[in-house]
Write a structure and sequence with these properties.
The chain is an alpha/beta fold. Helices cover 55% and strands 13% of the residues. It has a single domain, classed as Roll (Diaminopimelate Epimerase, Chain A, domain 1), CATH 3.10.310. A hairpin with a 4-residue loop joins strand 2 and strand 3. The chain starts with a helix and ends with a strand. InterPro entries: TPM_dom (IPR007621).
């Protein structure tokens, strides 16, 4: 466990998360998810977390492990076609993780998801969170549209609104 990481997480104030993800941006992300889901039968959730606290922090939980916990807690795995995707951002670590259910993950694979994460992180390092998230949602939607195109009306199995932790 790194003292620098603990300090970074403990000093990560909620105002920073609110500054980087104001309500207007959260609404744009929701619109992007909704527009993307019109092209495929998959389900996308976006979660931003400012910092870890308590047990996850002192267990030295990685962003990937935390993303897996969030994926499970939000029941993203509970979709009819096993094609739910979580885009998770841990601001304190400046880390993006994509967790995908087995139906879509088998088609895209770790390398495909990592490529999308790296593209998002480039925009985040430049301070352009809006562009990074929107590009990420669009890239995930393209993968889902390729492998799970929308057939008929379909149902929206999960909420499109971003989650702020």
């Amino acid at each position: 466990m790194s003292i620098a990481r603990i300090t970074r997480h403990l000093l990560q104030h909620h105002w920073r998360r609110r500054r980087n993800f104001p309500p207007v941006l959260l609404a744009k992300i929701e619109q992007a998810i909704n527009a993307g889901e019109a092209t495929h039968s998959g389900q996308i959730r976006f979660v931003v977390e400012g910092a870890l606290d308590g047990a996850p922090l002192f267990r030295n939980q990685s962003a990937r492990e935390r993303a897996l916990d969030v994926f499970s807690h939000l029941r993203i795995w509970d979709t009819a076609n096993n094609n739910g995707v979580l885009i998770y951002l841990l601001l304190a670590d400046r880390d993006v993780e994509i967790v995908a259910d087995r139906g879509i993950d088998a088609k895209v694979g770790a390398e495909g998801w990592e490529k999308i994460c790296k593209e998002m992180e480039i925009d985040f390092r430049a301070g352009d969170f809006e562009r990074g998230v929107i590009k990420g949602v669009e890239a995930v939607s393209r993968e889902l549209a390729t492998h799970f195109p929308r057939a008929g009306g379909g149902t929206n199995e999960l909420p499109d609104a971003p989650v702020v932790l």
